[in-house]
Amino acid sequence: MNPAGLSAEAVSIMLSVFVLAALTATMMLWMYATRLPAMRRAGLDPQAAAHTADLRGKLPDSAERVADNYNHLTEAPTVFYAVALGIVVLGAADPVHVACAWTFVGLRVAHSLVQATINLVALRFMLFTLSWVALIIIIARAMITGLAP
Description:
Helix content: over 70%
Distance between the termini: 32 Å
Structural class: mainly alpha
CATH architecture: Up-down Bundle
CATH topology: Four Helix Bundle (Hemerythrin (Met), subunit A)
Strand content: under 5%
Number of domains: 1
CATH class: Mainly Alpha
């Protein structure tokens, strides 16, 4: 059902937004599931996390990686959210935007999994860079569409 009368492409882009938001929520839950027990094991009072930078080096790497990834999901993906919504509002959603949106989301999922588990920096960097390539294509095409008469 599509009560807003959106095109199939616009709906697909909105679904990619929701999937990325769900990834962020999942990483937040994973962060709590790893950070809180790690703080207890380390004997740290919750007040020690008043400034999360103060926790650096006091928790196991596995807990820090998940928290770092959660923070990363509040950076570049916010640009994706804004641009994706703009594309839908402008009525500019098309198959290329859809493909790039899902590519961006898929690469961010892969980036999160790599960072939170094996944390191979070269692989993370490649996934990060490729996700930005997809996002830059979306941005450039959106600007062209928005500026076209």
